[in-house]
Design a protein that fits this description.
By secondary structure, the chain is of the alpha/beta class. It is built from ten helices and nine strands. Helices cover about 45% and strands about 15% of the residues.
């Protein structure tokens, strides 16, 4: 049987980790566990995942490597990239652009060359309002990444536009958690959670937020449609609807 690998990069981040956990769970639901159109999953990370138990299934592989591009399997048909840094962690927009744009595009180019036509679908996680002409640098960085990934001409390019991402983050040390909790993004998430508890504002805030688990479910649901081609962009609301559809079909 010809291998068709889903490769996940950015596995240490909130969204990438959610997809790693979801795919590992699906493949572990023996004997019928499977992902549409996918024979195996390769999760790549630059440091070990915290609180993660590797499934005892040959269809799931975890690789810790400093060179993500060189470690992408040649059998990759779907590449999911949630690679990125927050401004807080990067320390500057130049450092953030080096990862969120330069490294992301460089890895995509290497993967396309290495996989020799097998890699047909690229899934890129960017941000709400991502646009090369945006007022804010964060959105400009993400918009530039979208532009340059689309220019690579994959058969199918899926772009996910999360806003505030709700979920459980994993930290290597208590100090790392303290540093994260002091950041502006954490403060913003507390505001989002408060607003979601306010009935009159729920619909508006919900349009700009999505959980890490729903992003993972939406991704798997999108993989079920193997005939689609071109560029697709999905909002927070789109992803929640896809996640709901995935749940309904999994019952």
């Amino acid at each position: 049987m010809k291998m068709s690998t889903l490769t996940i990069i950015g596995s240490n981040g909130l969204i990438g980790r959610a997809l790693v956990d979801s795919t590992a769970s699906i493949l572990s639901s023996s004997p019928a566990g499977h992902i549409p159109g996918i024979t195996d999953v390769a999760a790549l990370a630059r440091r070990p995942l915290i609180d993660f138990t590797l499934p005892s299934k040959p269809e799931f592989a975890m690789t810790i490597t400093p060179d993500i591009g060189a470690s992408i399997p040649k059998s990759t048909t779907v590449l999911f990239s949630a690679l990125g840094l927050t401004y807080q962690k990067a320390g500057s927009y130049a450092a953030q652009r080096a990862v969120d744009h330069h490294l992301t595009v460089e890895i995509a180019k290497k993967a396309k060359e290495k996989c020799e036509g097998h890699l047909t679908t690229y899934i890129l996680v960017t941000a709400l309002f991502a646009n090369s002409n945006a007022w804010f640098e964060h959105q400009r960085i993400k918009g530039d990444a979208e532009r340059d990934i689309i220019a690579l001409g994959f058969d199918r390019t899926i772009i996910l536009h999360p806003g505030a991402v709700l979920g459980t983050r994993h930290f290597a040390t208590p100090e790392e958690k303290k540093e994260h909790d002091r950041g502006y993004y954490t403060a913003a998430l507390h505001v989002v959670k408060f607003l979601l508890s306010t009935p009159i504002l729920q619909r508006w805030v919900a349009a700009a937020s999505v959980s890490d688990a729903d992003i993972a479910k939406a991704t798997i649901q999108l993989l079920k449609d193997t005939d689609k081609k071109g560029v697709e962009i999905y909002s927070c609301t789109d992803m929640r609807n896809l996640a709901k559809k995935y749940e309904e079909q999994s019952m």
